[in-house]
Amino acid sequence: MMTAARDNPFRVERLHRLRYRAADHDWLAVMRKLEAQRYCGAIVGPHGTGKTTMFLELRGRLESAGWCVRHHRLSMDDLGGAVAMSLRMMDAADARTIVMLDGADLLGRFGWWRVHRRWHHSGAKGFVITSHRQGLLPTLLQTGTSLAVTHELVGELVGERAAETMKAGVARLYDEHRGNVRDVLRSLYDAAARGQVRV
Amino acid sequence: MSKVKPPLQIETYENRVHYAPGDALEGLVSWRFDHPPERLELRLFWFTTGKGDKDVDIVSRMSFDHPASVDSEIYSLTLPHGPYSYSGRLTSLIWALELISKPDNDTVRLELVMGPSAREIDLYQYHADDQLRQP
């Protein structure tokens, strides 16, 4: 029997609640490194490896630590306004502000140059981005995935018992999507919608 | 063993959760805190859930300023004429009431159904693979 969207264990708001996890991840070390880099850094990694998840968690930690965080998530649908929005955030920033851009490499070469230059002239204390490639800012963290982590995430979404029965299928999807966990979870959404996932 | 009452509660008249477009939505909100919150807000909104990013629209708000630490208030809202609650594979649209206390952002939510004949639209009501389901 197919699963309605509201009951699908892989629906988007459940995915958004997943925490970033990696075998060698240590938040204390990340925060120390960010401070050592004068609050300037890039979360770098391939598609679907948790950059945005990491970005959101970092934002929450910085806000809890008392920073004013101005953030924007860039998307392919709105590139025209992305540079303008980024420049406005820089202009509005002060010494207690860290500006965060998710998807900074979407700005393009000239757009990035303008934003980066504006940051240097702004009052912002820090600048943190996500990017698929290195080189825009000093790397703060490199994201990556593993099949083990993917199984963990599926277990959190559907329960350990159901996840155990799905292991072979999840492994196949992980290979098909070449480690892009976001696409694995989207495929699992479709499978659940068709009634192929029992939870 | 006595049940612990949650700090925030939303009740509807006659415990209804199914409504037709344009219906009156009435009931009682109540709260119980150790210290009075700054204010409380009751929101009527719809949101989508499913595969894509969430869409949400708050259609009504009621504010309760400088409330006592323990109290209850009657609310009365009118539901709009759309959009209808629907259930599909890719997305579902859900109506809800939400009571939020400030500044702590404690929240309670009550999901509702709003649609023709007080029923949600089931996009797969007549899907062949699931056999014909009675409306």
Overall outline of chain B: elongated
| Biggest sheet descriptor of chain A | 5 strands, parallel
Order of helices and strands of chain B: EEEEEEEEEE
Going across the biggest sheet of chain A, name each strand in turn.
2-3-4-1-5
* Helical run tally of chain A: 9
**Biggest β-sheet of chain B: count, sense, barrel?**
7 strands, mixed
Share of helix of chain A, binned: 40-55%
**Distance N to C terminus of chain A:** 12 Å
The first-to-last residue Cα distance of chain B is 41 Å
Largest contact between protein chains?
A: A-B, 15 and 17 residues
Helicity level of chain B, as a percent range? under 10%
Number of H/I helices of chain B: 0
Explained architecture:
The complex is a heterodimer of chains A (199) and B (135). With 199 residues, chain A is of the alpha/beta class. In chain A, 49% of the residues lie in helices and 14% in strands. Chain A has nine helices and five strands. Chain A has helices spanning 12-16, 27-36, 51-64, 79-91, 108-121, 147-158, 160-165, 167-176, 181-193, and strands at residues 40-44, 68-73, 97-102, 126-131, 139-142. Chain A has a five-stranded parallel sheet with strand order 2-3-4-1-5, with helices on both faces. In chain A, helix 5 links the parallel strand 3 (97-102) and strand 4 (126-131). The longest helix of chain A is centred in the first third of the chain and has 14 residues, at 51-64. Chain A is elongated. Chain A starts with 11 loop residues before the first helix and ends in a 6-residue tail after the last helix. Chain B is mainly beta. At the A-B interface, helix 9 of A face strand 8 of B.
